[in-house]
Backbone:
């Protein structure tokens, strides 16, 4: 990690390779990547975020399945729609 410097037309150009972000105690919590490296991992990051969101949704569904208020609302909705369900498609 760090930077490197090269010269272009006799002017120094400093390029950031990677930058590690740390919290107040020095623990690494993130990395700033050059765009070229980010493009290599971007799709994986999107897939991972989507997977994490799915896990959260599943956990919420499990909690809802035990929630008396949710179950009462569900039963009421099912009763309200029973005449439409009986008609068939």
Residues:
């Amino acid at each position: 990690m760090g930077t490197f410097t090269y010269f272009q037309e006799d002017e120094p150009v400093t390029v950031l390779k990677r930058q590690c972000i740390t919290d107040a105690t020095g623990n690494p919590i993130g990395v700033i990547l050059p765009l070229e490296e980010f493009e290599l991992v971007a799709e994986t990051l999107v897939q991972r975020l989507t997977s994490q969101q799915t896990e959260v949704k599943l956990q919420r569904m499990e909690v809802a399945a035990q929630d008396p208020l949710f179950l009462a609302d569900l039963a009421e909705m099912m009763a309200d729609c029973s005449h439409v369900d009986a008609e068939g498609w």
